[in-house]
Amino acid sequence: MTVAPQILRLSLTDFRSWRSATLQVARRLVVLTGPNGAGKTNILEAISFLGPGRGLRRATLDAVAREDGPGTWAVAAEVEGAQGLATLGTGLATPAGGDGPHARKCRIDREPVGSATAFAEHLRLVWLVPTMDGLFLGPAAERRRFLDRLVLAVHPDHGTRVSALERALRARNRLLESPSPDPHWLEAAEHETAELAVAVAAARAETVQRLAATLFERGAGPFPSAGLILDGWMEQAALDRPAIEVEDQYRRVLRENRGRDAAAGRTLDGPHLTDLLVSFAPKGIAARDASTGEQKALLISLVLAHAELVATMTGIAPIVLLDEVVAHLDPGRRSALFDALGALGAQVWMAGADPAAFAGVATEADVFEIAPQHVAPAR
Ligand SMILES: Nc1ncnc2c1ncn2[C@@H]1O[C@H](COP(=O)(O)OP(=O)(O)OP(=O)(O)O)[C@@H](O)[C@H]1O
Ligand SMILES: [Mg+2]
Fold first, then answer.
1. Would you tell me how many other CB atoms lie within 10 Å of the CB of residue 20?
2. Per-residue pLDDT of the chain (379 residues; tens, 9 = 90+)
3. CA–CA distance from 168 to each of 117, 149, 153, 191, 267 (Å)?
4. Which of 70, 185, 236, 308 is 20 to 30 A from 316, comparing alpha carbons?
5. Which ligand is nearest to the CA of 46?
6. Class of 125-315 in CATH
7. Which residue owns the Cα nearest ligand 1 atom 13?
8. Helices 233-240 and 243-256: crossing angle, nearest 10°?
């Protein structure tokens, strides 16, 4: 059984451009329209903080605090989620006692929880935003982050592991900087690195394999199918060999290449260098060689398939955030997208400057007209 969580009420305080804003929502489709700079993307970004990580702009917690505001901020949502009705809240707060830097706080039904990972029991999130448009042309690091975000929606602990792996690699690199590093310390650093590396690689391999299968099953339609290949030996190995074997192999690689890595000042092998290779299936070409529109359609396919996968793997249909997606589609694809979103059953939040782009769903959606510091339900 799949549940489809729904935000019923969203409120923002001192978040980005918003002093305060409240949106009451009743439907599965939510549309935010209004002029450029009104604060539409900021609202989607606020929702994206109801999950682990840095949100859809990958901003730091300080950066989203309102300029000229108190430096603290809050996002709260009343959710009909996987655990029934709940209030999720997060933000930067003054620490108890009032001294020291602001700290991120997460609450469920007003009770503090350890981190935003706890929100995953109530809802999951996926998004497509314009900054992802250059995904196939940009550096591998961008696609790796995209990939890890895909995995995170299924495995909420994945983000913590990726960060821990980065820290372990930094620790190893620092040890290698010394002219005669302590072999025990090095051994320990490499042990930890290998353990985390295999966990990260295995989660990626599993998610991509299932995502590829989902894309294949969806087949051709208004949104093209994509081929997915993980370019990293460890992800390949994690699919068909026991984790412990892969871990041992990576430890050997690390041990044997200490000299090389010391000279380079970084670790030259491992899942921190993996790339996600995407192909445009209808033409059998690399996604980067597809046209601008084809690349955009491919991204939509990936996000739709991913949302479907999250629903089947976790039993929770993820809330979908789509920023500036609809306006770029021709009318046929636009209505195909609305159909696909309807079939997903999830709550979908769409933002765009052009109200006409949403004409096809205006009667079934909660439409909000957004102006600076002002939210007005259109009906
Ligand atoms: N930390 C902040 N404090 C105050 N204002 C901010 C902060 N960060 C961003 N802004 C402002 O928020 C405004 C609205 O941004 P947002 O991206 O949400 O607009 P939008 O409605 O999505 O516009 P567009 O249609 O152009 O995408 C921008 O003018 C930006 O300068
Ligand atoms: Mg915007």
1. 13
2. 899 999 999 999 999 999 999 999 999 999 999 999 999 999 999 999 999 989 999 999 999 999 999 999 999 999 999 999 999 999 999 887 777 788 899 999 999 999 999 999 999 999 999 999 999 999 999 999 999 999 999 999 999 999 999 999 999 999 999 999 999 999 999 999 999 999 999 999 999 999 999 999 987 788 999 999 999 999 999 999 999 999 999 999 999 999 999 999 999 999 999 999 999 999 999 999 999 889 999 999 999 999 999 999 999 999 999 999 988 788 888 889 988 988 889 999 999 999 999 998 989 999 999 999 999 999 6
3. 21, 20, 23, 9, 11
4. 236
5. 1
6. mainly alpha
7. 37
8. 150
Tell whether 179 is in a known binding site.
no
89 is in an annotated binding site: no
**CA 39 / ligand 1 centre spacing (Å):** 5
Among the atoms of ligand 1, which is closest to the Cα of residue 352? Answer: 25
Q: How far is the C-alpha of 78 from the C-alpha of 86, rounded, in Å?
A: 6
Q: Ligand nearest 67 Cα, by number?
A: 1
Residues of the chain with CATH 3.40.50.300: 1-124+316-379
**Ligand 1 surroundings by CB, under 6 angstroms:** 16-17, 34, 36-42, 64-67, 353
Residue ranges, comma separated, of all CATH 1.20.1050.90 domains in the chain are 125-315
Helix (H) or strand (E) holding 54: none
> Is domain 1-124+316-379 given the CATH code 3.40.50.300 in the classification?
yes
Phi, psi angles (nearest 5°) of residue 210: -75, -35
